[in-house]
Amino acid sequence: MHSAPFTVAIDGPAAAGKGTISRAIAEHFGFAHLDTGLLYRAVGALALEGANPIEAAQALQPEALEGGRLRTAEVAQAASRVAAIPEVRSALLEFQREFARRPGGAVLDGRDICTVICPDADVQLFVTASAETRAERRWRELSAKGDDRTLEQVLDDVRIRDTRDSERDAAPMRPAEGAQIVDTSEMSIEEAIATAISYVERRKGFDRN
Predict the structure, then answer these.
(1) Which pTM was predicted?
(2) Residue 109 has pLDDT above 50, yes or no
């Protein structure tokens, strides 16, 4: 049984599959998992309600990470906007680093986990896919929930968010030097998960005893 910290850091754009891959890695190895995007979504949701985003980040409580409202497109765009505020990122930094150091292993996914939060992570992955592929995935998810936006509108949203996330001054989204790139454009989710788990196993020399 492994009790020492072991950190898997996963970055990538929206709808590339990193959340699904992160949860699968955590389940496979028995690691804790943190979707760091939820932190920014929670702050974004509070900002939409009129809160000051910096103050909201500084006072963020765990219960703010719960609820289906955090998965809406409106909150996703708000999260991207507040994530560009350096003071918001600073306020949430230590929360994420403490989580990454927990005994028994941890998986964190987001936009700047490899580059800023956990630059010394034992495993670093950058999960990506073409904007068109990601837009279609997101469009199918939204359509299943009754959202009537067109594929073209969703693709525009994806491209706007990509630009904002990659060009912001505070911790822009980019692959860390040495990170393993996992392009899921032509992969099934099963193939993507297997690829990522295989890489973690090679890096860890995981003890199955």
Answers:
(1) 0.84
(2) yes
